[in-house]
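We modelled the chain as a single entity of 286 amino acids. Its sequence is:
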Amino acid sequence: MRSSNPVFSRRGFSRDNGYAGFNTAPQAGSAQGNPYAQNPYAQNPYAQADAQYGAPPQAPVTTDRMTMDDVVVRSALTLGTVAVGAVLAWALLPVSATSYGLAIGAALIAFVLAMVQSFKRTPSPALILGYAAFEGVFLGVFSEMFNSRWSGAPFQAVLGTMAVSGATLLVYKAGWIRVTARYARIGMAIAIAFMVVMAVNLLLVAFGVAEDGGLRSFGPLGALVGIIAILLGAFFLTLDFKQIEDGIAYGAPRNESWLAAFGLTMTLVWIYVEMLRLVAIFSSSD
């Protein structure tokens, strides 16, 4: 399973931690001695749902397979590392040009670590926790900067992130959203288009063509873009939930729970940052 951040591509659980594509044909002899290779999720985590939705799969009885407890524990460790890094950065790095520089450096390191993990065939706890630590430092300084101008904005953003995550989980568990191959393709196409537009907007701002942040301004247009970004974050959460659910149902290797934690963390960070900007925009309009 790849990260849930829109910057990165995604993969499903697969044989020998390889990449699973849609409509992938089974490999000859792969079913022998490997119950995980026999299930359809080893070929395609979403396309099978089109034909089998509503029929819960049966997980093979075996050891060293991912469980919900594994996902919860790894996610708690990863998100806890982010939180500790953010608290320490907030407490030890007062708002200044130096802290801004350190935050940018931490963000770049976190990005590199995330990229390395995203292209690895197997999860690396050290890379994932390292990413979480540096991301936490960036978020701590970033949140303190917003709080210095809009008091209480980080707390409101945390509540907003929890609300979006909880609502997405509720909608997913209630079956109101079917995570199918078509759903994933359409959502990914929208996410890629969004990222391209944001990249172009950044270039226009950098060269002075667009003023006040362009599409990322602190006005009504910026608020609309922020809402779209949060909806995309919710979309990636549904993909994360589906991959976790199918990974557990079909007996994915236990170490895949680190990838589940990695994906959830990146998505929640994405939603939090966008929620923080949205809170600031609405606070500015008061």
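As a brief sanity check on the tokenised model: The two ends are 42 Å apart (CA to CA). The CA atoms of residues 59 and 250 lie 5 Å apart.
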